Structure formats: C-alpha cells, structure tokens
C-alpha cells in the first residue's frame, strides 16, 4: 500500500484564556513541545488577547528554539499596529502574520506591510480569487478544512502547489461537530455555545449529510468518529500543516494517533 500524505501537526491556541486557563494552557504547550510540535498558532482576537499573552509567557519561560509562532490581525488593514501583539507575545518580530479574514482594505496595506517586523505573510479564510488579488507577498494560507466544511478547493490546492504557497488547515473535528456530540443540541461550554455565530458554519444540511456518512463508516470499520475525522484531515494531499486545538494533552495525542492511520480504503469511504 502506498504511503499516505502526512502534514506536520501544529498547535492551535484558540482555547487559551477562553476555554482553558493559563495552567492548562502551559500543560498543553509543554506536551506539544515534547511531542515535536514546532508550529504554534494564535491570533490577536483569541480571548481578547489572552491567547497571545499566555503563549508569550510560555515562550519567555521555556525559551524554545526552532519554532514558528503565527498570529493574526483583524481588519481594517489600512492602518496596522502590531505593537499589542508584539508586547503580548514578548517578541520583536512575528514569524508568520495572517490577515485574519478578507477585507477590501487588504489591497491598501501593501506599503504598510513592507514596514512591519514580520518574516512571512499569510491570509486566512480566503478564496482563490482573493488570494490572487492579494499578490505574491502572501506565502501561506490558512483555511477551515474538514469532512463537514471544506474551504480548500482543488483549484486553490493546485494553485498553491504550483506557486510554492503553503496551506495550513484548522478545525479537523469541526469544533466537535464531527464527533456527533451536538446531535441532540449544543453542548454546554462548547465552542458553539461560547460563540453562537459559529453554529451557522456547521448546522446545515450538507454538513449533516457528511456527518451521517462519517457515522456509518465509523460503525462499519470499528473506528471512532473522532479518529476517522482526524485521519481524513491529516491525510489530505497538498496540506503542509494541520492545526490541532484542544483543552488537554489527550486531545493532541488523539491527533498523533490519527496521523499514523494507514487504511486508505476506509478514508476513501468518507467522501463520495
């Protein structure tokens, strides 16, 4: 059997300061570092800056080397001030800075971007047309991509491959949607309760049909829905990094277990 594609696992820090406190966040960061994770993803908007702050404290106390720290800024982009993020992270330069979402002011930011203390620029939650509009300065994209919601199209994937643009994906479990735990209503304390607007991304017919297929394959194969959903996301072609979020080290461990999944026949059953 041919080897399945294996992207690297990155740690998504969206839960820090919002769903888990600093102590739990440090435990997850330490565990990720110990398992070889070297890509850490946060955003100025996560927890109102709490995620960047917690990650910055961890960086200061552990002083890890050879890592990538990515963060994101929200629009408007015509007047960008990175000072708050730099201060919270405790760094002088951002390894990877994303425009968090598409906005027309991104087209006005060219001159400002050149002056920012940033090594690489990326764009998050963008279409191929939007990426083309942004131009060659943007070398990384980050989109939602999982069994339920797929924001990495074949056209986008092909363009990135042809032009040396890295693809990072997030939410391999669909914020818990693909585990099936919200079938009988939104679970208390979940992301769908904390951010009700997130429900419209997943609570629709197409996503429910894909969830039903996942449930059927899980039942036939004897694997859990979470394991199969993670394996699917971690074996997509052309993906460089899959961000794994969570609240405990066990959430990261289940992703590494799914990375070793090698039954291509089962994965092929998940998509028509």
Q: Secondary-structure element sequence?
A: EHEHEHEHEHEHEHHHHEHH
The share of residues in helices is 25-40%
Secondary structural class: alpha/beta
The CATH topology: TIM Barrel
**Second-tier CATH architecture:** Alpha-Beta Barrel
Largest sheet features: 8 strands, parallel, barrel
CATH top level label = Alpha Beta
The CATH homology group name: NADP-dependent oxidoreductase domain
Any idea how many domains?
1
Order of neighbouring strands in the sheet with most strands: 1-2-3-4-5-6-7-8
Inertia-based shape:
globular
Give the total of beta strands: 8
Number of continuous helical runs: 12
Percent of residues in beta strands: 15-25%
Oligomer: single chain
Poorly predicted spans:
none
What Rg is obtained from the alpha carbons, in whole angstroms? 18 Å
Q: pLDDT average, as an integer?
A: 92
Distance between the termini: 21 Å
């Amino acid at each position: 059997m041919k080897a399945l594609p294996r992207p690297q696992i990155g740690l998504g820090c969206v839960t820090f300061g919002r769903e888990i406190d600093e102590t739990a966040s440090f435990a997850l960061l330490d565990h990720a570092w110990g398992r070889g994770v070297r890509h850490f993803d946060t955003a100025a908007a996560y927890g109102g800056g709490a995620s960047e702050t917690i990650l910055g404290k961890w960086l200061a106390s552990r002083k890890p080397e050879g890592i990538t720290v990515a963060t994101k800024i929200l629009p408007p982009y015509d007047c960008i001030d990175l000072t708050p993020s730099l201060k919270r992270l405790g760094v002088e330069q951002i390894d990877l800075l994303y425009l968090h979402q598409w906005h027309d002011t991104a087209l006005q930011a060219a001159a400002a971007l050149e002056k920012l203390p940033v090594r690489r620029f990326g764009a998050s939650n963008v279409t191929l047309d939007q990426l083309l509009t942004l131009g060659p300065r943007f070398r990384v994209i980050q989109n939602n991509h999982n069994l339920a919601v797929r924001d990495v199209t074949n056209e986008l994937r092909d363009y990135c491959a042809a032009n040396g643009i890295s693809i990072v994906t997030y939410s391999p479990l669909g914020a818990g949607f693909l585990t099936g735990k919200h079938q009988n209503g939104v679970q208390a304390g979940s992301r769908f309760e904390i951010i009700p607007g997130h429900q419209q991304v997943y609570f629709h017919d197409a996503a429910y049909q894909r969830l039903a297929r996942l449930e059927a394959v899980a039942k036939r194969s004897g694997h859990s829905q979470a394991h199969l959903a993670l394996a699917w996301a971690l074996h997509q072609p052309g993906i460089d990094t899959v961000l794994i979020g969570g609240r405990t080290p066990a959430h990261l461990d289940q992703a590494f277990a799914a990375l070793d999944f090698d039954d291509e026949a089962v994965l092929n059953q998940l998509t028509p």
